[in-house]
Amino acid sequence: xxxxxxxxxxxxxxxxxxxxxxxxxxxxxxxxxxxxxxxxxxxxxxxxxxxxxxxxxxxxxxxxxxxxxxxxxxxxxxxxxxxxxxxxxxxxxxxxxxxxxxxxxxxxxxxxxxxxxxxxxxxxxxxxxxxxxxxxxxxxxxxxxxxxxxxxxxxxxxxxxxxxxxxxxxxxxxxxxxxxxxxxxxxxxxxxxxxxxxxxxxxxxxxxxx
Length: 210
What we know:
The chain is mainly beta. The protein folds into 2 domains: 8-88, Elongation Factor Tu (Ef-tu), domain 3, CATH 2.40.30; 107-203, Beta Barrel (Elongation Factor Tu (Ef-tu), domain 3), CATH 2.40.30.20. It is 14% helix and 43% strand. The chain contains 3 helices and 12 strands; from the N terminus they run βββββαββββββαβα. It has helices at residues 69-74, 168-173, 191-208; strands spanning 8-17, 24-29, 43-46, 49-57, 62-67, 82-88, 107-117, 120-128, 140-143, 146-155, 159-166, 184-189. The strands form 2 sheets. A 6-stranded antiparallel β-barrel has the order 1-2-5-4-3-6. Strand 10 and strand 11 (159-166) form a beta hairpin.
């Protein structure tokens, strides 16, 4: 489990085939000291996706993870080299400065726009219509692993646009500053919203049953 507070940036330096089914093995160059308390088998969120550390090289500060076909199908950002967000799993004594993030990516969203507004930036994301019920005004959402707050929802026939304010600290200390219009980003909705949706859908189903 994670909090969506990004304190470390890293770089995906190598991608290789894992198996004949299409899985990938990725190598990530981390910041100095990031791997100090990381062990084989530890969970690390990479661009919001919870991955298991399979190899650690403390000398070069690199680690490797295996990305399954299922994860590749649900995420974006693991097929090309570049900067990534990394977050170590939450310890019981840690504070939850963002919100509880599981590292289970629900879908990809398209960046509709990213524009400067005074000192901040407004990020607008196009959420597929099937996930529209999981977003809400002032609700939490993890975007490429970053815990953010939804400032507005605009519903359309085939998608929902959500607006998010990126404060200067977030913009300057994450990879958000590199994002471009039309880019895909990983989305994890608030876990509480998933359970609420499930309960409501079951209640609706039960009312329809004879």
